[in-house]
Amino acid sequence: MMKEQRQNSQIRNITARQVLDSRGNPTVEVEVTTGDGVFRAACPAETSSKLEAVSLRDGDRAWSGKSVSKAVANVASLVLHPLVGVSVQDQSQIDALLSEIDGTSRFELLGANVAFPVSAACCLAGAANARVPLWKFIAKAADTKKCSVPVPLVSVMQGGPSSQNTLPFNDLMIAPFGATAFFEAAKVANEMTIDIQKQLAMKGVTEEGGQVPKGLKNIEDYLEVINQTIHNSALEGKCGICIDCSSKNFVIKQKDSVNKYDLGYKKDVRNYYIGTELADYYVKLIQAYPILSLQDPFDAEEFETYAYFKKQLEKNNLKVQIFVDDMTQSQQDMIHNIAESKIVNGCLIKPNQAGTVTNAINAFKTATAAGWKALVHARYGDTADCFLSHFSVGVSSELIQVGGFQRSERTSKINELLRIEECGEVVYGCQDWVQQ
């Protein structure tokens, strides 16, 4: 490295401001200044769960309690001085310093909504100083040998508690795994989305950019529309269905007996299952439709139900990816612990959930070392920031989920992946799914 380049790599200033995420809620944006310029990153937002790194909010009357002025102030009072003069070429050192400054396991002092955008902005600065694209800089930090552009899981129908239809699951997605390139995958997803729009009446677009179909009565009706669209597009064996079950929306916790799941919670008539019954129902759906993956199909504490489901899949010779998020929440230690139980074979990786870029890389590598697939995932309250696209390529994730194609904070990440693919240095696809 030349002397000037080395001098330019040192952090000169770090500032922060409050900006708005895609839901109109405050979040933190950070700018890191080096000799190479000013580098900016914003933190996506979502309600912090019990395991993930904690995002700080003020909790006062401003912005309905969601303002982040305390988190913004932490950048000047706690982060700036220890990081000034540190080289952005050493991502792990920067992230270790952030963890040391905070002193807690979940960034309860700084806030993950400070730690992550500082980490990401430094990563951007490091890439600029190294004169390489961001994904290559991340690949070096992750020791990735061969980078790939991931298969997009694209939302085509959304349900769950916030959608006014009968679909109990949070999201039905398509995955064009048989495409020859990411460009073709985006084209397929766009055309299928439009085809489904023509078939059904829609009730608007959700905060994840998916469409809300109405007029369908049961889960099979929704799946049949997607399945028929795949058939009409001559994409059998090249495109499959992925389901975000998000079972926390319909589980009824029981203190003294087994949990119940109500797939009819959005209807006048309830439809209760216990865990094993729900597992058997999922098996029937997988046998009937080209389903590639399920996310959080059961409550995070129902290990026995997950184990039963795995046995039923093996008994029926069904290959499907079972992703968990509520169990692991992008935490390296939780991924390691759950992987040892061998009850699932994948997890979601949400980088800001991990707290820093290094933590996210380590969480991803822990998952893949266990033989899992790691699905790089956006957040509900996202921003136009495209760091996630570069992260997915840098760690060579085979899969990414950013939402649907009808909100710009979602398509910004798709567009960035299109740009990355143009360099000609990355491959496309999830080869295991292609072989399946």
From TrEMBL:
GO terms for molecular function: magnesium ion binding; phosphopyruvate hydratase activity. Belongs to the enolase family. Residues 11-138 form the Enolase N-terminal domain. Residues 146-436 form the Enolase C-terminal TIM barrel domain. Keywords: Glycolysis, Lyase, Magnesium, Metal-binding. Pathway: Carbohydrate degradation; glycolysis; pyruvate from D-glyceraldehyde 3-phosphate: step 4/5. Its cofactor is Mg(2+). The keyword Magnesium applies. The active site is at E208, K350. Transmembrane segments: none annotated. This is phosphopyruvate hydratase. Its EC number is 4.2.1.11. GO terms for biological process: glycolytic process. Gene3D superfamilies: Enolase-like C-terminal domain (3.20.20.120), Enolase-like, N-terminal domain (3.30.390.10). Mg(2+) binds at D325.
